[in-house]
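Problem 12. The chain below contains 167 residues. Write out its predicted structure in token notation.
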Amino acid sequence: MNIREIEVSDVEQWSALLQHVEAESAYMLWEAGERNVEMTGLLNMIEQFRQSDNSTILVAVKDDELIGYVLARGGNARRNKHSAYIVTGVLKQYRGQGIGTRLFNRLEEWAMSRGVTRLELTVVTQNVNGLSLYGKAGYNIEGTKKNSLIINGEFVDEYYMARILPS
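Solution.
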């Protein structure tokens, strides 16, 4: 298994990966089939992230198949360009095998090489597996977003978590 930055040529596999992860997870922002996954938009996103100093998409690749990702979107202003908001997903059949940990380790290396010193995310408070991964990766809860999402007709809270890296 290899962790690397996404390539433009990965767009079709990444589109499929996003759709599969959203269909398999109860805690992603987008529900299965809700997101309009347009190839042109994804291509533009990949190109913008690859040209950015503080944004990236890292993918986990096994046997030439994308099986996981972590996306980091850096701030646009001088005051927050040291910070990146992250989203991650791993195909269900590969969860619990250390892939998320490897993605986060590689993300940290990337961030420190780019001067990104704050990585932040949100996670549904009931997402025990996500909380375990993020805690193991050094993320701390900074606050709670009350009634942040509606899942299965019920309001759920999210934790706001961050990891501060050495500058």
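Discussion. The radius of gyration is 15 Å. Students who got a different answer should revisit the alignment rule from Section 12.3.
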